[in-house]
Amino acid sequence: MTHFFSSPERLIALGLAVLLGLLVIVPLFQLVRETVTVQPYDSAYLPGRQPGELTFFHYERVFGGRLSWALFYKPFMNSLVTAFGATVICLALGSLLAWIVVRTNVPFREFVNTAVVLPYMLPSWVMALAWVTFFKNDRVGGTSGVFAYLFGVQPPDWIAFGGLPIVICLSLHYYVYGFLIISGSLATVDSQLEEAGAIAGMSRLRQFVSITAPLVLPAVGSAVVMTFIRVIGSFGTPAVLGMPIRYFVLPTQIYAAIGSRNVGDGYLLALVLVLMAVLFIWINQRMIGVRKSFVTMSGKGFRRREIDLGGARWLVFAFVVGLMCLTVILPLGLLVLQSLSRTAGNYDLSNLTLHYWIGARGEVNALYAGVFQNPQILHAAWNSLRLAFFTAVATGILGFLIGYVVVKTRGSLSSRALELAAFLPYIFPAVAFGAIYIGMFSRPVGPIPALYGTFALLVLIAAVKNLPYTSRTGIAAMLQIDKSLEESARVQGIGWVSRVRHIVAPLAASGLVSGMLLSFIGTMRELSLIILLVTPSTAVLASVIYTYQTDDVPQLIGAATLLLVALVVGCNILFRLVFRNTKMGFA
User: Fold this and answer.
1) Does the keyword S-adenosyl-L-methionine apply (predicted)?
2) Which residue, 9, 44, 280, 486, has fewest beta-carbon neighbours within 10 Å?
3) Which of 37, 569, 525, 566 is nearest to 235 (CA)?
C-alpha cells in the first residue's frame, strides 16, 4: 500500500479512474435508469404515478404503442438506410482515393494527399446548406434555389430534401475517414506479394481481390466502424435536409422528443443509438477475428511499386481536382452567393448587397443585422472560440496524463481499463451523448451543482467527447520516450513535477499539440453534440446557424457559416504558426 501511494502514476491512475468513471461510465447507467423511470412529462399518460418510480411505459410506447411507427421504426429505418448508404459510398470513394495516392504515379501527389482531406476542415453540414441553396424548391424551401433560377424548373422534393441528398452530403464529407485509414494500411503492403501473384498468372484484378484486399481488411473494418458511427449519430445534415419534409432519423427524432419535453422517449432512442454502435463494433471484430493473420511487414525486404497510369494520370488528377471543387469550392461559393443576396431566391447581379455582412438592422432587413453588426452572431463566435480553447486545453492535459499512466503501467489491467475508458466516448453517437449529459447534469450530483444551461457543461461534454483523440496521441507520444530518461533524473533526486515539466512534457509536445488541434477544430464545428445543451446565453456559431435555418434566413446562414469556416481555418493557421517549431504529428 505504501508503494502504491508513493508512485505518482498509480495515484494519477486512481484519480483518472474516478474521473472517467463519473464522466463516461456513470452517464451510461444514468441513461438506462432514465428510460425505466417515470418522467414529469408522463403524468398525462400515467395518472397517479410519481416521477422517479419504476416503469416500462417508455419501452411500451416506443416499441409497441400506437405511435411506435412514427417514434421509432420509421426513424430507425431511415437511419439504417442513410448510414449504410453513406458508409458504402464513403468506403468506395475513400478506398479509390487511397489507391490513387499510395499506389499510382498521379501528378502532384503531395497536393492531392492534402487536398482530399480538406472537406474534414469544414463542418459536416456545410454541404447540406449548399445543397439546399442550390436545389431547394418553392414547395418546401419557401424560396427557390439556384437550380430553379438558372433553369426555370423546380427540383422535385426527393432531390431537394430527404434520404438521397442526406446520403450524398454525408458521403462527400466523411469519406476522409476511409481515405486516411486505408491509405495508411495500403502503404505497408509489399508489392512483391502482388508481383508473385502476377508471376503465377493472376490478372491485376485477381491480384487485388486475392492478395491486396484481404491484407487491408482490418483497415477497411476500422474505416467502416468509424464512418458508420459518425454518420448514424450525425444531426446537422439530416436536420437541414430531412426535417423540412418530416424525414426523421434517430438523432433528429431524439432532438424532437427532448425538445417537446418527452425526455423518456428521447433517452430510450439515445440508448438505441449507443447499442447500435456497440453492436456494429462487435460484428466488425467478429468478422475480422476469423482470419489468423494480416501481416504485411516482416524482416524481409520491403518494396512498394507504383502503378504507371500513363496518359490517364492527368485524367485521374482532374478527377481529384473536380472532387475538391464539388466538396469545398462549390459549397463555399454557393454560401458566398447566398450571403450577398438582397432577396432570397434572386441571384441576379442587381440583387447583390453587403447588408448581411456589414449592414445594420432596419436597412435592408427590418429584423436582422449583418454578421459584424449582429450581437447574437458575435457573441456566439466568441463562445465558439472560448469553448474550443478550453476544450483543447482540458483534453491536452487529460490526454497527457492518460498517456503517461497507460505507458508507465503498460501491460497491467489498470492500463488496459484506462485506455478503454478513454476511448469509450467515441462509440457514443454525439446527439446520444448530449442526451445522456442532460439526464445526468439537469440536477445536482453529489457536490456538483446542476450544470444544465451553463457554459461549463458545454466544456465538460466537449472535452470528454474529444478525449479519444488526445488520449491516443498522448499514448503514442509517450511510447516514443525512452523510460531511461526519466529514470536517470529520478536517480539524481529530481522530483516528479520537475521531471514531467522539463523532460517528459517537452518531448511529448508534438503529439499533444496534434491532439489539441484536432479537439479545437472538432469543437469549433460541432453541432450534434451540443444542440440539446445550448441556451441563448451559451449559444455557439453552429447552433445559431441552425436557428437561422429553422427561421429561414438563408442570407445570414451563408454569412455566419462562412465566418465559422474562416475562424476554423484562421485558427488552424495561427495554431501552426505558434507551434511551428514543434513537429506536428499530422500533415
Assistant:
1) no
2) 44
3) 525
